[in-house]
Automatic annotation (TrEMBL):
Belongs to the ETF alpha-subunit/FixB family. It comes from Pontibacter flavimaris. SMART domains: ETF. This is Electron transfer flavoprotein subunit alpha. The lineage of its organism: Bacteria, Pseudomonadati, Bacteroidota, Cytophagia, Cytophagales. Its cofactor is FAD. One of its GO terms (molecular function) is electron transfer activity. The keyword Transport applies. Residues 3-189 form the Electron transfer flavoprotein alpha/beta-subunit N-terminal domain. FAD binds at R214, G270, I271, S272, G273, A274, I275, Q276, H277, N291. One of its GO terms (biological process) is fatty acid beta-oxidation using acyl-CoA dehydrogenase. Keywords: Electron transport, FAD, Flavoprotein, Transport.
Length: 324
């Protein structure tokens, strides 16, 4: 029996959220007195696979089928299920990303397993139980859930666990073939367009996000968000009304009905902090809020707050960041 971690690649590297999932998986394996294996799919450099040893992974199974370069849920599920079967894995770990959530639910059906998404704790395993804590109601509350089926699937919330970096530890890499057929790709997208924000940084993967709301008054003032993002190497984002009014494109809208981001730093400029907005940003490590209203609800969720006029503060921040 082993723990199996599904790791996602981006531009040949392993995504940060998957490194977190790998560390989580190897800690669970330790708890259960077993080892953690990873399964990687698509285009990932061999060196990146080997380096998963730093997160405590002992072996990586890798399916290099060219058709897996773009995400196709049924094909990915077949590869992960094959790896789980080969390793007799009873605990499967993913990042709670869009891809993780899509394959997690399908795998739960296929393997007759139980699935917990948005998980924020290591399992409690006393007395043969497997109980994890997960965020519910857009992160406003937590629930402890017991996974009672033989196969347990855990999707780990981004930024809830540090990725370990035990330099020098390496994983062995083995080829895996799930013998995919054309039928597995019947529902493949015709084309996948990676939507960059203007800074060239992909919003869901960004380490720093600079986001603007209705307080910026109009698209003509968006240079403030863009300029700050540029000096910080950040992605740009916005609140829903901003994209509804066409000040910014819809792919930048974050929140309950938009994209979920989990950066190390989220800077919110002129955004009130409605619950629907917070739902998409509350797994950010550090939140900085700039708002002229000291009663703005966002300040309750902020690590740092600046009460004042964005049109005075942001230019000063840009100059300060340039001087770093
Ligand atoms: P406002 O609420 O108008 O806030 C503007 C803020 O700017 C205010 O706090 C004000 O004090 C401040 N301000 C004004 N001038 C300045 C200045 N010069 N300097 C500094 N600060 C200034 N919203 C989302 O963002 N994402 C979602 O996914 C989402 N989904 C939704 C789903 C549903 C079903 C519903 C009902 C709503 C949803 N909303 C969502 C909308 C949400 O409820 C809020 O209306 C929205 O987030 C408010 O956007 P805002 O903060 O940009 O604007």
């Amino acid at each position: 029996m082993s723990v199996l971690v599904f790791v996602e690649g981006l531009n040949g590297e392993i995504k940060k959220s998957s490194l977190e999932a790998a560390s989580y998986g190897s800690q669970v394996a330790q708890q259960l007195g077993t080892t953690a294996t990873a399964v990687a799919i698509g285009e990932v450099h061999e060196e990146a696979l080997t380096k998963l040893g730093e997160q405590g992974i002992s072996k990586v199974l890798y399916d290099a089928d060219d058709r897996l370069k773009q995400f196709v849920a049924d094909a990915y599920v077949k590869v992960i299920a094959k790896a789980a079967q080969q390793e007799s894995a009873k605990v499967l770990v993913f990042s709670n990303s869009n891809i993780g959530a899509a394959v997690g639910s399908k795998l739960a059906v296929r393997l007759n397993g139980s699935l917990a998404t948005n998980v924020t704790s290591l399992p409690k395993t006393d007395g043969g139980q497997f109980v994890v804590t997960r965020g519910v109601f857009s992160g406003k509350a937590f629930a402890d859930v017991a996974l009672i089926s033989d196969v347990k699937i855990v999707a780990v919330k981004k930024n809830s666990f540090e990725a370990a970096h035990n330099a020098g530890n390496t994983a062995t890499v083995e080829k895996l073939s799930a013998e995919l057929t054309d039928a597995d790709f019947a529902a493949a997208p015709k084309e996948t367009v990676m939507q960059d924000s203007d800074g060239g940084v992909l919003l869901p993967e960004a380490e720093i996000v600079v986001s603007g709301g209705r307080g910026l008054k109009g698209p003509k003032n968006w240079h403030l968000v863009e300029d700050l993002a540029k000096v910080l190497g950040a992605a740009t984002a916005c609140s829903k009304p901003v994209s509804d009014m066409d000040w910014r494109p819809h792919h930048e809208h974050v929140g309950q009905t938009g994209i979920t981001v989990s950066p190390n730093l989220y800077i919110a400029i002129g955004i009130s902090g409605a619950i629907q907005h917070l739902a998409g940003v509350n797994s950010s490590k550090v939140i900085v809020v700039i708002n002229k209203d000291p009663e703005a609800p966002f300040f309750k969720a902020a690590d740092y707050g600046i009460v004042g006029d964005a049109f005075e503060i942001v230019p000063k921040l840009i100059e300060a960041a340039k001087a770093l």
